[in-house]
Amino acid sequence: MKYVDEFRNAKLVRRVAQRISLCAPEDKLRIMEVCGSHTHSFYRFGLAKLLPQNIEFISGPGCPVCVSAPAYIDNAIRFAQDENTIVLTFGDMLRLPGEKSSLESERAEGAFVLVVYSVLEAIRLAKENPDKRVIFLAVGFETTAPTIALAVIRAKKENIRNLFFYSSLKLIPPALEYLARDKKLDISGFLLPGHVSAIIGTKPYEFIPKRYKIGCCVSGFEPLDMLEGIYLLIEQVVKRNPKVQNQYSRVVKEGGNLRAKKLISQVFKISAANWRGLGRIPASGLELQEEFLRFDARRLGDCGREGNVISRPQERCRCADVIRGLVGPAQCVLFRKTCNPEHPYGPCMISSEGACNAYYKYR
Amino acid sequence: MCLGIPMRVKKIMGDFAQVEAGTLVRTANIQMLSGLKEGDYVIIHTGFAIEKVDPDRARETLKIIHEIR
Question: pTM of the full predicted structure?
């Protein structure tokens, strides 16, 4: 078993979709797929077309680039404008617009901005460039946090003096609480992210059915995974029995990955964080612990204020509302017209995990 | 992007392992996992193996999916 084809069996996909159509209630249901990769999988495999019209699927905040606050990009650009600095970033961040510029434009002007696949490359590049300041843009959720933690520990162990981390690491459960509280959204169920859950397990979501009576199901990324997840969520709605279920048990354990969780708590402390679209959410981000503060790029002094910026008001771009689930990509006036993957305007189109990007490519 | 395609562990080299999926071969850090063996399947995220795929659980899930009718 290679864990791919078995979960893409077209005959089974049709059968499960049919079963969902039979058991789904006639009332309108709103299911939020929290993870950007779920959104992509959902449209790429054409699942939306197989399911009843009254089930509405809303993309959630689980796209790290999409939820990065504009002020974070502006600060990253400030770092990049220093000629003795090398800024390292995951690819999707490159085109994200700040107030006046983007890292891509800065690079075209001669700034040292390099795209890396893994934080491990930061260690190598810092060693190879001892006379430069190397700043890694640590963007991601609980899945990325332990990888950054391992790099920070290694940097300390090897006494690397010129490497710094600019953290925009965020936590998913507090963002879900923010969305669960929003009565306008009226969410019937959360399809929970597979790989964030591989790290944190299923327990951190238990407050959602308990406090907000909203069902939850962790799901994998293959078509049959997602369909089973949706089926289980609908069953919860029909039986009025909201709980946390785990469809992706081949990867996600109840307690998560203990080593990874330990790494996160060893290196980071929980702090408030600014989310594009959602604003400032208490206890939803990760900052370096005291012991590792010398690796914190915020202490370099070039950072501007990271205010509570939801989105820039002059923009017609509705990414902030897409992230909150208030509108779908097609309701944005820029979608497909001025904003497309070739010339993206907002983060939801720029990021390969963004909802607008998925809608554009597959719908 | 969350890569859902599991990669097979080809060779373990200390904190790292060579992993493969089809013709794609990569080196991944395996410090987050214990008791990894060659032939195991793992989920890779930005160059790190974040979890091992449990074959028994995978079979169970497929069985349940087959029973949805």
Answer: 0.94
